[in-house]
Amino acid sequence: MADINIVGVVAIIVFYLLILVVGLWAARRRKEGEEEAMLAGRSIGIFVGTFTMTATWVGGGYINGTAEVVYDSGQGLVWAQAPWGYALSLVIGGLVFAKIMRKKEYFTMLDPFQEKYGLRMGGLLYIPALLGEIFWSAAILAALGATVSVVINLDRFASIIVSACIAVFYTLIGGLYSVAYTDVIQLTCIFVGLWLSIPFAMTNSAVSSISTQSTRWVGEWSSTYTGVWIDYGLLLIFGGIPWQVYFQRVLSCKTAAKAKGLSLAASLGCVVMAIPAVLIGAIGASADWTKTDFFKPTGNATNQTAEFDKSLVLPMVLQYLTPTAVSFVGLGAVSAAVMSSADSSILSASSMFSRNIYKLIFRQGASEKEVVWVMRIAIFGVGAAATAMALAVDSIYSLWALCSDLVYVILFPQLCCVIYLNGTNTYGSFMGYVLGLVLRVLGGEDKIGIPPVIKYPYYDDENGQLFPFRTLSMIVSFVTIIVVSYSLKFLFEREILPLSLDFLHCFRKYDLEKTGAGAYEKYPMEERDGSSAL
């Protein structure tokens, strides 16, 4: 890959400009104000809504990551869980959470937490939400860097940085309007580009029939990893719900009914858009890469192989197994498409910071204009953090799996409790947060070099944790929130514990109701609902 692919360069530039122009055009629709920047004035309709909701998950990490897992002989199709996992998460999110959140007209996913558990507890819950969005953006940028580096032989470092800058630029100007409308272009580009490429790649002389090579890309089931498979499956399903990038679209819909409908439509879109990625992974696994232009034999040595990083399989198939004209469409479309996905997570994390951290905790009197400017500054910060993460981690799929971990263990049980269990309070929320985090972190994570302190059942020195410890951590967190909340509620309201011990002010309202309305003035409003907590 020493020679620069001029056609690839042109394709990248053309599609980059297309995304940028659409993003800037959409920005012209935006009016001034916090709601306009974060939620597009709650004006997203059926057409744009369906595209942007589907594109919430279908981006660089989704497409490149699925192809990578199918191509990997150690995993294969049986481990490509993200397509059906995220599709189910959208179904559950739409049926269980979307209508409720939209009806209450929240601005972000963290609003109900701060409303019920207090401002500072909501700020604490921002940490796993932020990390999740950064991991997700990093996965997208890593996929983009891999694609661009294959196409034009540009250094991975430079390609990721340039791509991130473009995505940040139009997000900074247009907010959700730009993000939503570029999502329409993104999904169209992926669909047309990949499906156009598949027939040519499949009939390339270097590719055997994928049906005869099925043992290579389907993968084999091993009962040893049953617990791991279940753990990741549940993580993707339930860990795919409590994301600001999802709820930002839910809250931007015109009505609650549309928010539910768009979630269900997007779940179907996730499955449909995964099909070409699976086929490309299978094609890559069925190809003899020594028969392609990629292979550069050295000397007279025998048994030479054409090996490359498995995370590059999608751009490799598009460049070396399709004609030049087709690779122009395929590579350019995918590159531009995955770039337009990074903006969603960057905007989501920045929206939560500007509203739930800056405005509600530090500057409650901040004007809408000030909040919008803080959001713009945060876009730079989140974009830089995601870029650094994309450069530091090798496997796209590793990043992709990590991005739901803390969200699943910590935020999913918190979201269920804050929406459906009125008796939960700040004490339970905090204890569930801490215990879930401790159990998850002490379980270790080899992808980022964290050694296991707790060795759960079936632990193996070679294979690591084989027990579904992430799900166990989530369940323990869930149970802790409920038990601690209702136990303290019972003890305080029955006056078994004196209300003077209620240092987080979760039960002062009960005390004041007993002593009369006049005594209500003893405590500031922020103390009555737990907002002074932590």
Detailed description of the structure:
- With 534 residues, the chain is mostly helical.
- The chain starts with 5 loop residues before the first helix and ends in a 6-residue tail after the last helix.
- The chain contains 21 helices and no strands.
- It has helices spanning 6-27, 34-39, 46-55, 60-71, 82-103, 111-117, 119-152, 156-202, 214-217, 226-238, 244-252, 256-286, 313-320, 324-362, 368-392, 396-402, 405-420, 426-442, 469-493, 508-515, 525-528.
- Helix content is 69%, strand content 0%.
- It is globular, with a radius of gyration of 24 Å.
- Mean pLDDT is 82; it is low at 515-534.
- α7 (119-152) packs antiparallel against α16.
Key structural traits:
534 residues, 69% helix, disordered C terminus
What topology emerges from the helices and strands here?
Elements: H1 6-27, H2 34-39, H3 46-55, H4 60-71, H5 82-103, H6 111-117, H7 119-152, H8 156-202, H9 214-217, H10 226-238, H11 244-252, H12 256-286, H13 313-320, H14 324-362, H15 368-392, H16 396-402, H17 405-420, H18 426-442, H19 469-493, H20 508-515, H21 525-528
